[in-house]
Design a protein that fits this description.
By secondary structure, the chain is an alpha+beta fold. It has eleven helices and 22 strands. Helix 2 runs antiparallel to helix 3, helix 6 runs antiparallel to helix 8 and helix 9 packs antiparallel against helix 11. This is PH domain-containing protein.
């Protein structure tokens, strides 16, 4: 009896940290603070606590699970402490069900349900061999298993992984996507989101190239990707599909229960073409010991992938409209304002308001920089010069918004001033006691210069000096 256990090695199965259940449990724990912050209040706290408890139980149970089958018996650890069942207490072992569950009946104890993988890893016994060994160790009858009619002898096992030569472009594209995500995070949220999607995709592709592996033997397929390790018996594989990708081809196994499974290998891609896909696919199918249909999908699917990729780029770029921003090559706009007190014609100021002192104020949060000149003896009279920086809002460019604002100043006696900036207007009105009130607006690109004078100078004189002030101020505007 001991010789049987020596000929057939024991099976040690431990749920991996990257299994789907462990990933779900970890994701649930990460989502707890987001849920609490989103819902808030007592209800949010209760939901977050329930989610945290459920995620912790799932994560601990998955990582704690352990199964060892050897010559002495069965050691099984679920959520509780580890239990040991010697072979002398085993009274029956059922065949595995569709999910791979095997029920072990025990003398004086409740049945033990074991989850065995339908397809073993290379070097491990397949389920039929394992069940035969277990029944022999327990002294139970071993049912005969005739080979299905028409089944051929299986070839040697297949093991393959994706070509890592694709890393030469995956890593640079991943870094570029991360740069796009970070650089445009505050200014272009949609483009930044596109970069985040590209980071997620290329990170998954990078891990697939490093960790992906496909194994096949007489029992079936084992496919390891980034977060999943799936095993499918050949008896449940309906057919294989060769799917064209934008730069290559990959193989998809279509299963009755597991659906479509994209295999880590064999596959071709950009900078990963070795011309061996057909030969590797034939070696993979040969392990089945039977004919497995292969359906090549039409190559026109590549056009669909290209169209989807182009749409994913054009939609956020079109929505953000970066060509309306100052850095766009065809636009020449200002992004900062000069100092209003320093960027003026001091001679014109002295002629308009003799003996005045400047008073500077700036509010870059609202895009305004101003300077006022007045005399202590007449604080309500004098001259003012305002810079106003007009910025883009949504689909309206900065220059377009500045043009629209200048339209508001037309009318009510405003007259145009040719040759001053891109456009300029002036308006005057006499006040009581011989005081004149004159205003001037001038625009250069997305900056509006506003000059106001209140005093006893005549309107023609005031307008001339104000034009000098505005012209000097416009010359200090720096366009990108």
């Amino acid at each position: 009896m001991p010789s049987l256990s020596q000929e057939k090695p024991f099976l040690l199965q431990r749920t991996a940290k990257r299994s789907p259940a462990a990933v779900v449990g970890a994701a649930v724990l990460v989502a707890v603070p987001l849920l609490w912050r989103g819902l808030g209040g007592v209800f949010g706290l209760l939901c977050a606590l329930a989610l945290a408890i459920g995620g912790a139980i799932l994560l601990v149970r998955t990582l704690w699970y352990r199964l060892v089958i050897d010559a002495d018996g069965i050691r099984h650890r679920g959520f509780g402490p580890e239990s040991f069942t010697p072979w002398s207490e085993v009274t029956g072992i059922t065949d595995p069900g569709p999910s791979g569950a095997v029920t072990v009946t025990r003398r004086g104890k409740p049945p033990l349900v074991l989850k065995l993988p339908p397809v073993p890893a290379l070097g491990e016994p397949d389920p039929d061999e394992l069940l035969t060994t277990m029944r022999e160790l327990a002294g139970l009858p071993v049912p005969a298993r005739p080979a299905p009619a028409g089944e051929k002898a299986a070839a040697k096992p297949y093991a393959g992984r994706p070509s890592r030569s694709a890393l030469c472009w995956v890593i640079p594209v991943l870094l570029l996507s991360a740069a796009v995500m970070v650089f445009f995070f505050t200014s272009y949220s949609r483009i930044s989101a596109l970069g985040a999607v590209s980071v997620a995709y290329h990170t998954r592709l990078l891990l697939l190239l490093l960790l992906g592996r496909t194994e096949a033997g007489r029992a079936g397929l084992r496919n390891r990707t980034v977060f999943r390790d799936r095993r499918v018996p050949w008896s449940r594989v309906r057919h294989l599909e060769v799917v064209p990708t934008p730069f290559g081809r990959l193989v998809v196994a279509v299963s009755e229960e597991s659906g479509r499974i994209a295999l880590a290998a064999p596959r071709e891609g950009l900078a990963a073409r070795n011309g061996r896909l057909e030969a590797d696919l034939a070696a993979l199918i040969a392990t089945a010991g039977r004919k497995v249909p292969v359906h090549p999908l039409p190559s026109r699917l590549r056009l669909l992938y290209v169209a989807i990729s182009v749409a994913c780029v054009l939609i956020p770029v079109t929505a953000e409209k970066p060509w309306l921003d100052p850095w766009w090559p065809s636009r020449h706009e200002a992004t900062a304002l000069p100092d209003a007190c320093m960027a003026t014609d001091q001679t014109a100021v002295r002629r308009l308001v003799p003996g005045s002192t400047p008073d500077h104020s700036s509010s870059m949060g609202s895009g305004v920089d101003r300077c006022r000149w007045s005399r202590p003896s007449a604080p309500f009279r004098g001259a003012e010069l305002h810079y106003r920086l007009v910025s883009r809002i949504g689909d309206d460019g900065a220059t377009e918004r500045a043009i629209e604002e200048m339209r508001k100043y037309r009318g009510d006696g405003a007259t145009s001033i040719p040759g001053l900036g891109d456009e300029a207007l002036t308006k005057s009105a006499p006040l009581p006691s011989g005081i004149n009130h004159v205003e001037l607006w001038a625009r250069r690109a997305n900056v509006i210069v506003y000059v106001k004078y209140t005093g006893r100078s005549s309107v023609p004189v005031a307008e001339t000096e104000m034009e000098n002030l505005a012209r000097h101020a416009l010359d200090h505007i720096r366009l990108e």
